[in-house]
Amino acid sequence: MAAPKILAFAGSSRGASLNKLLLAVAADGARAAGADVTQIDLRDYPMPIYDGDDEMQSGVPDNALVLRGLIAEHDALLVATPEYNGSVTALLKNALDWCSRPINGEDGLLPYRGKMVALLAASMSPFGGIRAVTHTRGIFNKMGAIVLPDEVLLPQAQHAFDAGGNLLNETARQLARQLGAALAAKAGRGGS
Ligand SMILES: Cc1cc2nc3c(=O)[nH]c(=O)nc-3n(C[C@H](O)[C@H](O)[C@H](O)COP(=O)(O)O)c2cc1C
């Protein structure tokens, strides 16, 4: 059986993003479980804030088309989201909004229906980004995806990594790797 393909991205564009570091740990866990994981950076797909008038005049931006294509061709999504003011970042939400628009008569939500998604958050607060993850779960559910019940929250993430970007807490490392492995297993079974 072909290795399940997982697309991994974080809702932060920061070079030193703590969410990108946490995402990489989960991605390694998915690879160890046999998945083919591609980790992308949303910074490489800049797009304007969604505007219905712009869409009418110019259509969906090229970067959104490319990103939507990547989402469509992968079996599952691994997403780490920062929490901004108690919710998901504008970067992540805007990308998902653009990438959910109908294209040439194709249902905009087609790439998301039945797609397996696993969520993580790294935040500087003691609460670990629980609100952002809960909102992101709701967004993907609304789009028709199936979000794994387990999630990984990394509180006080500014102290969680060493200078080399390694996650210091072994339990947190194992939980992130296990989430990646669980997603690989689910995606490999076509979500069953
Ligand atoms: C505009 C803004 C709002 C924030 N609001 C929250 C918040 O509500 N809860 C929280 O835990 N952290 C909040 N933070 C801090 C983030 O947890 C922190 O910046 C984190 O490092 C962002 O993720 P990143 O490192 O992946 O970029 C906020 C940061 C910014 C810039």
Automatic annotation (TrEMBL):
Tell me where in this chain the SecA family profile domain is found. Answer: 1-192
By its UniProt entry, which Gene3D superfamilies does this protein fall under?
Answer: 3.40.50.360
Q: Name the Pfam families for this protein.
A: FMN_red (PF03358)
Query: GO CC annotation: what is one?
Result: cytosol
Annotated membrane-spanning segments are none
Q: Which domain of life is it from?
A: Bacteria
* Gene Ontology MF term list: FMN binding; oxidoreductase activity
For this protein, the record's PANTHER family field holds: CHROMATE REDUCTASE, NAD(P)H-DEPENDENT FMN REDUCTASE LOT6
Its name, as the record gives it, is NAD(P)H-dependent FMN reductase
Give the species. Pigmentiphaga kullae
Q: Which lineage is the organism of this entry classified under, starting from the top rank?
A: Bacteria, Pseudomonadati, Pseudomonadota, Betaproteobacteria, Burkholderiales
